[in-house]
Design a protein that fits this description.
By secondary structure, the protein is α/β, with parallel strands linked by helices. It has two domains: 175 residues, Phosphoglycerate kinase, N-terminal domain (Rossmann fold, 3-Layer(aba) Sandwich), CATH 3.40.50; 201 residues, Rossmann fold (3-Layer(aba) Sandwich), CATH 3.40.50.1260. It is 39% helix and 17% strand. It is built from 15 helices and 17 strands. The protein has a six-stranded parallel β-sheet with strand order 5-6-4-1-7-8, sandwiched between helices. The N and C termini lie close together (9 Å). Bound molecules: adenosine-5'-triphosphate and 3-phosphoglyceric acid. 3-phosphoglyceric acid (3PG) binds next to loops.
Length: 402
């Protein structure tokens, strides 16, 4: 697969780069800039080669139209600080502002386009609609431009700026994607066993589906975070007002049966920290999963579960973790995530391989004060690294091969 060096002389040429700049925000304050920092080397490499660099990225999940809270403007400012140069920000993606900003770029300069998901064509399931939007992106940079795919966190998405543009422009894989794949291959090519996977987070419906494949690969599967409640419901527990995917309860019941039949240990929480509302200062109470009050929601795994998860991980030689165990952004609900992070550092210290994947998971280990070096690898991709682990074809990678 070709890398940036295979694109030839880039001086004076426009290069469209798809990065994953989907960072956590508190208002317009970036609470963890890990994904921006991870994207800098490729952008610097291109600018250093004299390219006119046009970065495109998404933030959150807007519904195909502009929404102020999902603007990439704060990201443009931070990117400029990290690059040590001004980053021109276009207030739209393929409109007047984008054309003006891109048209004014000089060699070695960098621009960031507004959230690509403000355009319905980006995420459309309809090939023609997505293709039409990709055509607009190509028109923006011109037919002589090149495309560099460097957003590892989105390579599992068949979206216009990830997939369709690569079909329309000479393309290359960025260094971030190449490095991620190199490291994650250690998990798929004969991992040392026991191999444990820890899942949590809030993208429940996305990530429940990966369990089907992971049951055939991991020796131990630990489930916490928002997705635990659909499993608890499958075990017959009431889950109060916790995150619940009602239409997935049967599927989870099937996973529980399959795990038992195939000898895969599927560990679920036995206690949880509940609160009456989703707030930092909501009163937190530890309850057994058999006694979740109807009017309360589970926002973390409980202390008994944290201890059980930590000891299940201690003996593992390979661990992959995606998705916080609770709402780690609020102190009262961060203990479960801290316990799992701590357990991964012990796996590393004992010579095993520990990998943390996902925007918020990576942000969690940093904000809880862990040293990044205590983990084998911190991946920028959550859903993407999980799908890679499953052995699934990733559209954003496959398209670069064709
Ligand atoms: N019990 C819970 N209820 C509600 N939200 C939860 C719960 N547990 C964890 N979360 C939230 O999950 C969010 C992260 O989930 P997510 O699935 O997006 O993980 P991620 O590491 O960012 O992966 P990806 O990169 O795929 O998005 C955090 O903001 C956290 O507060
Ligand atoms: O946070 C992520 O995992 C990536 O930025 C992809 O975001 P998405 O799940 O909204 O496609």
């Amino acid at each position: 697969m070709s890398g940036i060096e295979d694109l030839g002389d880039l001086a004076g040429r426009r290069v469209l780069v798809r990065s994953d700049l989907n960072v956590p925000l508190d208002g317009d304050r970036i609470t963890d800039d890990g994904r921006i920092r991870a994207s800098v080397p490729t952008i610097e490499q291109l600018a250093g080669a004299g390219a006119r660099v046009v970065v495109t990225a998404h933030l959150g999940r807007p519904k195909g139209e502009p929404e102020a809270k999902y603007s990439l403007r704060p990201v443009a400012t931070r990117l400029g600080e990290l690059l040590g140069t001004d980053v021109a920000f276009a207030t739209d993606t393929v409109g007047e502002s984008a054309h003006a900003v891109v048209g004014a770029l000089h060699d070695g300069q960098v621009a960031l386009l507004e959230n690509v998901r403000f355009n319905p064509g980006e995420t459309s399931k309809d090939d023609a609609e997505r293709g039409a939007f990709a055509d607009q992106l190509v028109e923006l940079v011109g037919p002589d431009a090149a495309f560099v795919s460097d957003g590892f966190g989105v390579v599992h998405r068949k979206q216009a700026s990830v997939y369709d543009v690569a079909q329309r422009l000479p393309h290359a894989m960025g260094g971030l994607v190449a490095r991620e794949i190199d490291v994650l291959r250690q998990l798929t090519d004969d991992p040392q066993r026991p191999f444990a996977v820890v899942l949590g987070g809030s993208k429940v419906s996305d990530k429940l589906a990966v369990i089907d494949n992971l049951l055939g690969k991991a020796d131990r599967l630990l489930v916490g975070g928002g997705m635990m409640f659909t499993f608890l419901a499958a075990q017959g527990h009431a889950v109060g007002t916790s995150l619940l995917e009602e239409d997935q309860v049967e599927t989870c019941r099937g996973y529980l049966e399959r795990a038992a039949a195939e000898g895969v240990e599927l560990l679920l929480p036995t206690d949880t920290v509940v609160a009456p509302e989703f707030k930092a200062d909501a009163p937190a109470t530890v309850v057994s999963v058999e006694a979740i009050p109807d009017d309360q929601m589970g926002l973390d795994i409980g202390p008994q579960t944290a201890t059980a998860f930590a000891s299940a991980l201690t003996g593992a030689r390979t661990v992959f973790w995606n998705g916080p165990m609770g709402v780690f952004e609020f102190d009262a609900f961060s203990a479960g995530t801290r316990a799992v992070a701590e357990a991964l550092t012990k796996v590393t210290a004992a010579g095993g391989l520990s990998v943390v994947g996902g925007g918020d998971s990576a942000a969690a280990v940093r904000s809880l004060g862990f040293d990044e070096a205590a983990f084998g690898h911190i991946s920028t991709g959550g859903g993407a690294s999980l799908e890679f682990l499953e052995g699934k074809d990733l559209p954003g990678i496959d398209v670069l091969e064709s």
